[in-house]
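Late entry, zinc ion complex.
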Amino acid sequence: MLRIAVQNKGRLNEDSMTLLRESGISVKSDKRKFIAEATNFPIELLFLRDDDIPQTVSMGVADIGIVGLNEVSEKGFDVEIIKKLGFGGCRLSLAIPKAEEYTGLQFFNGKRIATSYPSILGSFFSKNGIEAEIHTIAGSVEIAPTSGLSDAIFDIVSSGSTLISNGLKEVERVMDSEAVLIGNNDLDSEKKAIVAKLLFRFEAVERGARRKYLLMNLPKSSLPAMEKILPAMRSPTVMPLAIEGWCAVHSVVLDDELWEKIDQLKEIGAEGILVLPVEKIIL
Ligand code: PRT
Ligand code: ZN
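Prediction complete; structure with ligand written out below:
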């Protein structure tokens, strides 16, 4: 049995639970419990505050966990980063009041900076030879400059709208973050095998999420041109149609390339193009 730590509420909870569900892991959801066992996979979920997840995994109380890379870096516990998960994307940035003129990193010498990430900021400053006063505060970092508590802040930024609405501007992007799967360094072989199974499923979900399934009717004479446009996984599936001279083509394309491919397919005579979501791709 493997134990995975997941954020109990907050920004990463929903995406973490969705990833597990799409990987075929069903849990009887009882929000009052802090441990839940999967009904169809040898895993149990431990619901925790994100701040506690790196330590819980490094101590082996949980075997693996889903948490922001920012928390992993800040806490500095010895855990393995197994996989970036592609959600919870954000950055850790320095921001100053928008009226201030920014003169480069030297600006921060002798300044007071409010943050919940003193360790990441401290090593960034010492690497760059900046001496500043770091004030650690737990929440609402963005109001510190207005309330006179600090001259600048170092905080998580996503859209940037929190900074703007607090009269601040982002001046240094220090670290990019996203949710990551972390693991204890001393998993036994049985647990490692379950992690490998889980990763196989995560990757199938991930590949599916980035791709679309395409169906279309195509004049048979366009088949050679089509094969240049749609390389697909092996080759596209081609099926005859009742109408003479036409066939149906099925293929999978990357989201990023979808519209470009559709334009090219229309040019070679494709009709009735259907675009469907792909749930999983098992290789
Ligand atoms: O209760 P618990 O301790 O578990 O949760 P928490 O309040 O510490 O964390 P939570 O749920 O807010 O965030 C969990 C994780 O989500 C973070 O550690 C990041 O890895 C990731 N994440 C992604 C974010 C954001 N985006 C984000 N925008 N975490 C916080 N924010 C906040 C930020 O602090 C700021 O106040 O949103 C505001 C900025 O957003 P924008 O869009 O206005 O720039
Ligand atoms: Zn937290």
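The helical segments are 13-22, 53-59, 69-75, 118-127, 161-165, 189-209, 223-229, 258-267. Will revisit in the morning.
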